[in-house]
Structures are given as structure tokens and as C-alpha cells.
Amino acid sequence: MNKTIETIKNHRSIRDYKSKKIDEAILNEIIIAAQSMPSSINGQQLSIVVIQDKKTKTLIAEHAGGQPWIAKAPVFLLFITDFFKTNLAAIKNGVTQKIHESIESTLVGAVDVGLSMGAAIIAAESLGLGIVPIGGIRRDPQAMIDLLKLPEMTFPVAGLSIGYPNSPSDKKPRLPLNTFRHDESYHKENLESDIDNYDVLMSSYLKTIGRSQEGNWSSRTSSVYKKVYFPNVLPVMIKQGFDNNK
Q1: Domain containing 96: what range?
Q2: CATH for 39
Q3: In a domain, 123, yes or no
Q4: Phi, psi (degrees; rounded to nearest 5) at 144
Q5: CA-CA distance, 39 to 27, in Å (whole number)?
């Protein structure tokens, strides 16, 4: 197997970083890799805000619900869906942009951010850096918008903490591959038994790393997904111009 695939398969989330600064040339390569990913219609409707200021990172950590690794990481990348940029193209061509009013724009923005962040993760890890994605920036999206001066028709989708690992992290097991790969059509026949087996595996893993209070995969996931855990997302999206009604 080639080195790139091995890097991807060896992924693990890192939340403990050295104070070592990331060289600007290395950081720029990561960002270029992220920008090189495809986007819907080549609209490039996403942007990255690079945050290295300690005070700003500390505020982001607080807005994200108290995640100290955001402040500790030397670099935090905020990935935003950016239809403000495409709207400038519409204005230039005498057209009224409508896509940001549709649920399609939310899907497009999220997919494009995911593609871009995936590339940033692979690039960072290939250079010996550790990362952890941060969905908690959507906990208080208005605070993020105000803090980083995000214009209308943009929305903070996810963040990425990057730094040199201070301590190793265990590799988290995944569900069996057949629950992820479905040939020709979706196969649900063995999903329940596969989840049962995975719960046993995850229970053992969590006990090993000192997080047995989480139980297992199904109990942890269902405890989170039984409610809308970031209720401010929709009202702030609407305020930003993403009506999601078409």
C-alpha cells in the first residue's frame, strides 16, 4: 500500500499539542492542499479563516463549549461556506443570486467544506502534525460570526485544530467495513448484529483509554442524537441569508 493511504488509515484525533510553532511554509501547503479539492460547479463557495492569535483561539474554545485543545493548538482553521464570494460574481454579471436561499446551498457548502477539510487533515498528518476536527463551533454560530467578522451569505461549518502531537493517541476502532460499504444497493440485513459486536469492541476500547463512562458506540451516539444539540444553527443561518425554504 502507498504512503498516502497508510497515512489516512493511521488517522487518530490529537488533542494534546506541543508549543512548537508551525512554520508558515508548512501551514501554507496544508491550506493549498485544502483549496485544491473539487467544489460544486467549481463555485469554490468556501473559505478558511486561519487563527493563530492566542486570545482569539481562547474565545473560540469557550464558544465551542469549553474545548481547551483549540486554545492550545498553535493553529486553528475555521472552514466556512461562502456564498458571499459567489454573490460578488453574480453582481458583476448583473444577476440576482438565489442559490443561498435553498437547502441545496447548505448541502453544497457542507460537502465542499468536508472535501476541503479532508485534504487539510491528510496533508497535516502527512507532515507529522496532529489534528482534531471541531463541530462545536456551531454551538454558538453567531458568536463565531461576530468574532471573526463573517459577512452575510457565509456560515461557520467546522473547525480544525492543528499542532505537533505532545502525546500519542489510541486509534479508535471503526464499525465493520460491510456496514460502510454496500455493493449495488443498501444492505441492512446484518446491521443490528454488527452494531452489537461493535458495541462490545468499543466498550473495551473506551475502558482501555479511561472513558468507560461513555458506555459504547450505540449508547453514546443515541444519547447525543436524541435531541437537537445545536439549536442555534437554523436561526443564525436564516439571519445570514440561508433561508433553506426552497
Answers
A1: 3-170+228-239
A2: 3.40.109.10
A3: yes
A4: -65, -40
A5: 21
Closest to 10 (Cα-Cα) out of 124, 114, 107, 98: 124
Q: Are 86 and 112 in contact (CB under 8 A)?
A: no
Give the Cα separation of 149 and 241 in Å (integer).
15
Q: Which helix (H) or strand (E) holds 224?
A: helix 217-225
C-alpha cell at 55: 486570545
Q: H helices within 15-171, ranges in order? A: 24-35, 54-63, 68-72, 83-92, 103-126, 141-148
Q: Is residue 135 one of the residues assigned to a domain?
A: yes
Do 102 and 238 form a contact (C-beta atoms < 8 A)? no
pLDDT in tens, 170-196: 999 999 999 999 999 999 999 999 999
CB 47 within 8 A of CB 14: no
Q: How many residues does the chain have?
A: 246
Report residue 158: phi and psi, to 5°.
Answer: -160, 160
Over residues 91-145, the pLDDT tens digits come to 999 999 999 999 999 999 999 999 999 999 999 999 999 999 999 999 999 999 9
Sheet strand arrangement including 130-134: 46-51, 75-82, 154-163, 130-134
First to last CA, the chain: 45
Instruction: Return all residues near 146 (Cβ < 8 A) that are at least 6 apart.
Output: none
How many domains in the chain? 1
